[in-house]
Write a structure and sequence with these properties.
heterodimer, A: Rossmann fold, 2 domains, 6-stranded mixed β-sheet, B: mainly alpha, globular
């Protein structure tokens, strides 16, 4: 179990968050800049003082203000990967990696040096100095350094934020591998929903210092508060399902979602694997009658669970497709023309190609 | 080529400058560290105090040292009676006067390299399990090393030529406190000493220039090693 509660006031800003989740797993702190994500993990790491805080990892209390317990950061064994990597410039990669490892108590050693170097592909970098590394390499070394300090909890503060899109795609698979390989609780700070989609098992939506919503990513993806953070074009329901069939020729995988099947472009898909897809609301077409003769691969039958005005011209429609909900963003004019009403049966149309890039193998937990 | 007296003066200058650097560097590290990291108000006062030798006439520094470390000075008598240490009229005294005069140079150099170093690195070391002393010796000190070396070399070069504070505090005793600039001054006061003065001036010039070049080279090499 991971328990984090913190209250901190600073001028007009108040941080007030309480999180309690099962371990291991990835808790994603998601929100716009200035919402208090980094403040919260600095409190968790012990680098910032909070008026009130409880930090408990798997039964070990690291801070409890009411009991007067507050361990120094160097005694917490919390690995921290900073946005700007913070590798020690006067040490080579090897010495950076060993820095935390050497200071970890012997009985806590469970993450082996060779394994980390293997997984993060650091062999060729060991003798280099940090300035001779690319941004992506730097973050991989920082990850390795934090892991080797044998942490009981790993904090990742927007580890991809300083990287361009290509470098980001290069590092994400390593993060997924770490999540699956070492059963470590991870707190992941991000303002990129795509990262959250790929990594998180529990999402905390933060705004102005408060946790405005938290839970599984499927439920969070439907939360109106998310719309305010990511914007109209980026919202869409997240669906989790198992692969029931995979066609290696076309690269299409069929996923059981609710009562229907969704086809998505997914390489290396194996039947039985769990998959997470995000279907952007703006890519979802609704039909009031069963459509025929279309190239669209995904046609799911469902019923309208709710309709809400999204802005002046568009409505956001929640369609229940037999246990799962798909969001569709339609113009008000279309909504009126089709006479969309709550409870009405509709067909949901999604092009398989528009899901490409949003389908990922789901976290094991 | 050089007379025994001239060689004496050069050797003495090297000796005094080296001792002054050895004495000032550890203090300068502590002071620079505190100045760069502390947010207390005492910082301003200490900062001004450290830089005083740059703006005061060196004679004043020499005079203050006399007041403090003269045989009847505030500490001088106590030092002599308790430890048998005499600073006035000795090389050790010359080294002390030189150290005080060059102290701001060392502090400045260290502080600049420390301020260029990200304090976030110390935080990172904390999360990796390093306590305060551990952090100081494995992160902070290595990060200020370029400044320490550059400052030490500059101070050494400057210390070879310290005049006013030295002559005021420890006088001009051949073989004991007559360093290079004092010998040069004496030569100028002596009829027929022009040739000697010129040679000593040339030596001063060469040593000073070499010192500055070495300091710059060290700073550059270390910056490059850290990719800054």
């Amino acid at each position: 179990m991971l328990k984090l509660t913190a209250i901190k006031r600073r001028d007009a800003f108040e941080l007030n968050v309480a999180i309690e989740v099962a371990t291991p797993g990835v808790v994603a702190l998601f929100g716009g800049s200035g919402c208090g994500k980094t403040t919260l993990i600095n409190i968790v790491a012990g680098l910032l003082h909070a008026e009130q805080a409880t930090i408990e990892v798997d039964g070990t209390v690291l801070e409890n203000s009411s009991a007067g317990v507050r361990l120094a950061p160097e005694q917490r064994r919390i690995g921290y990967v900073f946005q700007d990597s913070r590798l020690f410039p006067h040490l080579n990669v090897l010495a950076n990696l060993r820095y935390g490892e050497r200071r970890a108590p012997a009985q806590a050693r469970r993450i082996a040096f060779d394994k980390v170097v293997d997984l993060l592909a650091l062999h060729g970098l060991l003798q280099r100095r940090p300035f001779a590394l690319s941004g992506g390499e730097r973050q991989r070394v920082a990850l390795g350094r934090a892991l080797l300090s044998q942490p009981r909890l790993l904090l990742l503060d927007e580890p991809l934020a300083s990287l361009d899109a290509a470098r980001r795609d290069e590092v994400i698979p390593y993060l997924e591998m770490l999540r699956d390989e070492f059963a470590l609780p991870i707190v992941y700070v991000s303002h990129q929903f795509e990262e959250v989609l790929r990594l998180a098992s529990h999402v905390v939506l933060m705004d102005r210092g408060q946790a405005i919503a938290q839970g599984g990513i499927e439920a969070i993806s439907l939360n109106p508060a998310l719309r305010a953070i990511v914007g109209a074009d980026a919202i869409g329901s997240v669906l989790t399902g198992s692969i029931v069939a995979a066609d290696s020729h076309t690269g299409l995988a069929s996923i059981q979602v609710g009562a229907g099947i969704v086809h998505v472009s997914l390489r290396d898909a194996k039947p039985g694997a769990k998959v997470r897809v995000q279907v952007l609301a703006r890519d979802v077409i609704l039909a009031s009658r069963e459509p025929q003769g279309l190239s669209v691969r995904n046609v799911l039958k469902g019923a309208i669970a709710s309709i809400a005005a999204d802005d002046a011209e568009t409505d956001l429609v929640h369609v229940d497709v037999g246990g799962a909900v798909i969001l569709s963003r339609v113009t008000r004019a279309a909504s009126v023309a089709l006479d969309l009403k709550q409870g009405m049966p509709v067909w949901v149309l999604v092009k398989a190609v528009s899901i490409r890039g949003h389908a990922f193998l789901a976290p094991a937990t | 080529m050089l007379s025994a007296a001239e060689l004496d003066a050069v050797a003495l200058s090297l000796n005094v400058a080296l001792r002054s650097v050895l004495a000032s560097v550890p203090c300068a590290i502590l002071v620079a560290w505190w100045l760069a990291r502390s947010r207390s108000r005492g910082r301003l006062v200490l900062d001004a105090l450290v830089h005083l030798p740059l703006v005061l006439p060196p004679v004043v520094i020499g005079y203050l040292l006399l007041l403090m470390f003269g045989m009847r000075g505030w500490f001088g008598g106590w030092l002599h009676d308790t430890f048998g240490i005499q600073l006035i009229f000795t090389r050790a005294g010359a080294a002390l006067a030189t150290a005080v005069m060059t102290f701001p140079l060392v502090v400045r150099a260290i502080r600049i390299s420390l301020e260029g170093a990200d304090p976030g690195l110390e935080e990172a070391a904390r999360t990796l399990g390093a306590g305060p002393w551990d952090r100081f010796f494995t992160i902070t000190l290595p990060l200020m090393l370029p400044g320490v070396l550059a400052g030490a070399v500059t101070a050494f070069a400057a210390g070879l030529g310290e005049f006013g504070a030295v002559i005021t505090f420890v006088s001009n005793i051949p073989g004991e406190t007559r360093t290079l600039p004092l010998a040069l001054y004496t030569a100028l006061q002596t009829p027929g000493g022009e040739a000697m003065a010129a040679r000593l001036a040339a030596i001063s010039f060469t040593l000073g220039l070499a010192g500055l070049l070495v300091a710059e080279l060290i700073a550059r090499r270390m910056r490059r090693a850290m990719g800054r």
